[in-house]
Specification:
With 358 residues, this protein is α/β, with parallel strands linked by helices. It has two domains: 151 residues, ATPase, nucleotide binding domain (Nucleotidyltransferase, domain 5, 2-Layer Sandwich), CATH 3.30.420; 180 residues, 2-Layer Sandwich (Nucleotidyltransferase, domain 5). It contains nine helices and ten strands. The strands form two sheets. The chain has a five-stranded mixed sheet with strand order 3-2-1-4-5, with helices on both faces. Bound molecules: 5'-O-[(R)-(carboxyoxy)(hydroxy)phosphoryl]adenosine and zinc ion (ZN). The site of zinc ion has 6 residues, from helix 3. Zinc ion (ZN) binds next to helix 3.
Length: 358
């Protein structure tokens, strides 16, 4: 079986083709640079850019895979959550192809795409404990099966990636902030600044990053003569130290709540032994090392997709499409994109329900 996947829910226009032997036959990602001057993604600009690039990205993906459109068995598209303009572009392209080729369409929850990537790259078996950390989401879940997720914890305010982006913006490091902070942090002292680890006494697995962001803001303000961060003059070493201290605080918070979630995972699945990380923040080398250490201490197998498959890409959508296609889980062509689409309401449908068959 061969599945094409299309991703367009934020600022990457991407497509990929995978087969059921876990092979990536072709992939193409275009990161939109149009947003850089704004320090964040501008939805209208993103939608137009997806429209401008989607055809070329698809053509390039087929070329790399040395396949013709007729060779694929199903077309999957990220159908939410995300920016509605961009999602609509990808969904419309996928539906048009499916209709023209007479192949099934599969609506993929973007988060499910992230969540299942490690099954493609590391052959992880269900049920696994997943830390899903991206620009818009930060959740700890048990992945029991395709479309079967139990959320143990979530952020009550900012997502981890969002916090990286906001802190980078305050420090004038540019967008996206995660890679910039990671780079600066390599030269920094991670214990110079004392930063909070929010919600440690909440007794649950929820997370919070807005207090941490505010604490960083206060430090930056203290370097401005008028307490205005725009006027702050920060020595290079101070920027590095803030980045290192912030990165450590984020990792500490995530690890602390993962340890709590692990108790729950083990109670429910004593045979479970897999810890997986996914989403853009999973590209962070420091966080990956900390998770590896946690797994070693707890006797778990740690899996993380390669860095290029942590941030948004077409492969994750194609693979989630494959997992669904293999189970006959197709969608109707009147599926409406869902800008909001919680992962734990992503229940599987009966095989083939409402779908068109090839
Ligand atoms: O998964 P993703 O590509 O898009 C969403 O679905 O949100 O994640 C993007 C997020 C951004 O916030 C970006 O700053 C963060 O992932 N990110 C990182 C790193 N690379 C990307 N955060 C920390 N360290 C990184 N190396
Ligand atoms: Zn994503």
């Amino acid at each position: 079986m061969i599945v094409l996947g299309i991703e367009s829910s934020c600022d990457e226009t991407a497509a990929a083709i995978v087969n059921d032997q876990r092979q990536i036959l072709g992939e193409c990602v275009l990161t939109q640079l149009e947003h850089k001057p704004f320090g964040g993604v501008v939805p209208e600009i993103a939608a137009r850019a997806h429209l401008d690039h989607i055809e070329d990205i698809l053509a390039e993906t087929f070329k790399k895979a040395r396949l013709q459109p007729q060779d694929i068995d199903a077309v999957a598209a990220a159908s939410g959550p995300g920016l509605i303009g961009g999602v609509t572009v990808g969904v419309m392209a996928a539906k048009s192809l499916a209709l023209a080729l007479g192949k099934p369409f599969i609506a993929i929850n973007h988060l499910e795409g992230h969540a299942l990537t490690a099954r493609l790259t590391c052959n992880v078996s269900y049920p696994y404990l997943l830390l899903l950390v991206s620009g818009g989401h930060c959740q700890i879940l048990i992945v029991k099966n395709v479309g079967d997720f139990e959320r143990l914890g979530t952020t009550i305010d900012d997502a981890a990636g969002e916090a990286f982006d906001k802190v980078a913006k305050m420090l004038g490091l540019g967008y996206p902030g995660g890679p910039m902070i990671e780079k600066a942090a390599t030269l920094g002292n991670d214990s110079r600044f004392v930063l909070p680890r929010p919600l440690q006494n909440s007794g649950d697995c929820n997370l919070s990053f807005s207090g941490l962001k505010t604490a960083v803001r206060k430090i930056i303000e203290s370097y401005a003569p008028d307490n205005n961060i725009e006027h702050a003059i920060l020595p290079k070493q101070t920027v590095a130290d803030i980045c290192a201290s912030f990165q450590k605080a984020v990792a500490d918070s995530l690890i602390y709540k993962l340890q709590k979630a692990l108790v729950c995972y083990r109670q429910k699945y004593p045979e479970g032994q897999n810890l997986v990380v996914a989403g853009g923040v999973a590209a962070n080398t420091y966080l990956r090392a900390r998770l590896q250490t946690l797994a070693a201490t707890e006797g778990l197998i740690f899996s993380a997709p390669p860095v290029r498959l942590c941030t948004d890409n077409g492969v994750m959508i194609a693979w989630a499409g494959m997992e669904r296609a293999l189970r006959g889980m197709f969608d109707s062509l009147d599926f409406k994109p869902r800008p909001r689409w919680p992962l734990d309401t992503n229940a599987p449908k009966a095989a083939g329900a409402g779908g068109i068959k090839a």
